[in-house]
Specification:
154 residues, mainly beta, 2 helices, 45% strand
């Protein structure tokens, strides 16, 4: 099915925006990956900090956003391992708009090496054309390498 199912309140282990990190954004979960998880005007902002330098990327459009996230996992071998407790995943509903805001944080791994930490925010809106499931409107991803481990490619 297209979109993301969510239950309120958001709890780890339920289907919600954090599954975009937990399952589809891992090599074993890429079979259903694609632009259908995103609104056509979705936005992705990535900030990478490594070696005391920060680089930023901005992508827009469902296929561009989906493609860049896919590339992180498949081509660059980045594995985002979210902290699944209440300190690592938080969600809230914007009452006025119905947007669900989800933040997740955890560790970043490349192959079998710990390389840093991440924080990611998602804005999710229901799409009535796909059984009122959620699609991602925006996501902001911050990657920070550690000083004592191999660094992210920049």
């Amino acid at each position: 099915s297209s979109g993301i199912n969510a239950e309120w309140p958001l709890r780890p282990g339920k289907q919600c925006g954090t599954n975009m990190i937990q399952d589809p954004l891992q090599p074993h979960g890429m079979s259903d990956w694609g632009g259908h998880h995103f609104w056509t005007d979705s936005v992705l902002n990535i900030e990478v900090t490594a070696r005391n330098q920060t680089t930023e990327e901005n992508h827009s459009g469902a296929d561009n956003v989906s493609g860049r996230l896919y590339s992180l996992v498949v081509r660059e071998s980045i594995y985002l391992n979210p902290n699944l407790d209440r300190n690592g995943i938080k969600g809230r509903l914007e009452q006025s708009t119905g947007m669900v805001l989800v933040t997740a944080s955890g560790t970043v791994h490349r192959h079998s090496h710990f390389v840093g930490i991440f924080s990611q925010a998602f804005g999710l809106l229901r799409d009535p054309s796909v059984n009122n499931n959620y699609r991602i409107k925006f996501t902001n991803l911050q990657l920070r390498s550690t000083d004592y481990m191999p660094h992210f490619a920049t």
